[in-house]
Amino acid sequence: MNNTIGIYVHIPFCRNKCPYCDFNSIAVNSAPDDIYIDAALKELSGHIKERPSLLNKALDTIYIGGGTPSLVEPHNIKRLIGGIRQVFSGAAPDEITIEINPGTATWDRLAVFKDAGINRLSIGIQSFNEKMLKTLGRIHSAEDSVRCYEYARKAGFNNIGIDLIFGAPEQSIKELEDDMETAACLRPEHISTYNLTIENGTSFFTLQKSCELALPSEEEQTLMYEIAIHILKDRGYNHYEISNFSLAGFESQHNNRYWLGMDYLGLGAGAHSYISSPDRYIRGQALDRASKGQTTDWGTRWWNEKNPYAYMQLIKDTDHAIAGKETLKRQEALEEGIFLGLRRLTGIDTSWFSTRFNISLKDLCASKISALKAAGLLYEDANSIRLTHKGLLLSNEVFAELI
Ligand code: SF4
After folding, report:
1. Element (H, E) at 223
2. Which terminus of the chain has a lower count of CB atoms within 10 Å, N or C?
């Protein structure tokens, strides 16, 4: 499993800046597609030159996210995927995803994306309620979203995810229920539902400070989350991660990489990468030298310059746009293994944890696990430790207690 890699490409351009958004994105009239895609491919070549061993890994997933990747001219998306595949020759990646904003999705675009080898769409619908779409500053209507979904099906996509937000200003419980029911009725293979959080630096943050944002109370937001879980599970969706639901066999493979601490290479402005230390794995076996004291490095993480124009200039001048880098030590990797592993509803596979870190989870935090079990927040069986339903609603408290 560790001889594989996923590639994330960040496209930072959007039509408008949504008032709640703190992603690395900027509003543009027209995205400098050609130059930006050239830069992403040049960045990839630079990484390969520096770490030729990356080519020993099989490319499993490509995820093109943003921003609004569906703003990029489809021929450039095709060129991007072709360029990546040329570098990582071998079998086609299992999963190639692109995020789609329904306000930018024409039939022609979706057809070219399909032709480019994309086999999964993640459509940022957010809500089917016109009032809420307006509040969230989205550039599309509910009708646009349904049309986009239908186009996607007609174009032959059989793996479609829908993103929804709950807990928006003035959203009622009934509106939340309608959103979940409408999404489930469309029958996408995957549904993500995120509780709106108000991030520093956004327009919503300013409004909240001046008490102009009528958000549902914390209790209402928890209730909304519980209702969303209930409706989606009732409609046959498997709740496999705190915010994610899927039909059988349609979990997001790319996001699973993040939750399982697997390697990924990020290209583009502000993109993050994580590559495990090469001597930790020999012929796919987790020979955990780090835990045996033979090396202290677990892996390397780095992140790119966030400003898209500065990013393009840096790549032009130097092949790299790395703004920061850190070496992950075993202790940090171990804490992330707990935190990310518990996000998945199947929890942490205890033998996987022991093999990976050369210590059992029980030995590591037996008394904390016992206390959390006694409080009804964790459940343990012979193979795993996972959040209970109550633990799911209080997941941040559980993580803080364990780490
Ligand atoms: S479309 Fe997405 S990335 Fe762009 S501003 Fe809105 S929320 Fe942010």
Report:
1. helix 218-234
2. N
Q: Is residue 5 within 6 Å of ligand 1 at its C-beta? A: no
Q: Are 387 and 401 in contact (CB under 8 A)?
A: no
Q: What are the backbone angles phi and psi of residue 386, rounded to the nearest 5°?
A: -145, 170
Supply the residue whose CA is at minimum distance from atom 6 of ligand 1: 18
The per-residue pLDDT for range 82-101, each reduced to its tens digit, is: 999 999 988 999 999 999 99
Residue whose CA is closest, atom 7 of ligand 1?
A: 21
Annotated domain spans of the chain? 4-255, 346-403
> In angstroms, rounded to a whole number, what is the distance separating the alpha carbons of residues 81 and 64?
9
Sort 250 into a burial class: Cβ within 10 Å, 0-12 / 13-18 / 19+: buried
3-state secondary structure of 122: strand
Counts of helices then strands in the chain (DSSP H, E): 15, 19
- Does ligand 1 have an atom closer than 6 angstroms to the CB of 127? no
Distance, CA of 71 to CA of 103 (rounded, Å): 9
Predicted TM-score (pTM) of this structure? 0.94
Nearest to 266 by CA among 291, 302, 298, 231: 302
Fold annotation for 4-255: TIM Barrel (3.20.20)
Ligand 1 center to residue 364 CA distance, Å? 40
State the DSSP code for 383: S
127 with 170: CB under 8 angstroms?
no
CB contact set of 114 (below 8 Å; sequence gap of 6+): 155, 156, 157
> CA torsion angle for 224, 228, 229, 230 (degrees, to 10)?
100
Q: Which atom of ligand 1 is the closest one to the Cα of 137?
A: 6
Query: Which of 15, 23, 135, 138 most suits a substitution to test ligand 1, by most atoms within 8 Å of the C-beta?
Result: 23
Q: Read off the tokens for 316.
A: 């032009």
Question: With a 6 A CB cut-off, is 96 part of the ligand 1 pocket?
Answer: no
Q: Going by CA atoms, what residue is nearest to atom 8 of ligand 1?
A: 21
Q: Which of 10, 11, 18, 135 to mutate to test the pocket of ligand 1 (most atoms within 8 A of CB)?
A: 18
User: 278 falls in which pLDDT band (50, 70, 90)?
Assistant: low
Give yes or no for residue 17 CB within 6 A of ligand 1. yes
**Residue 4 half-sphere exposure, CB side, CA atoms within 13 Å?**
19
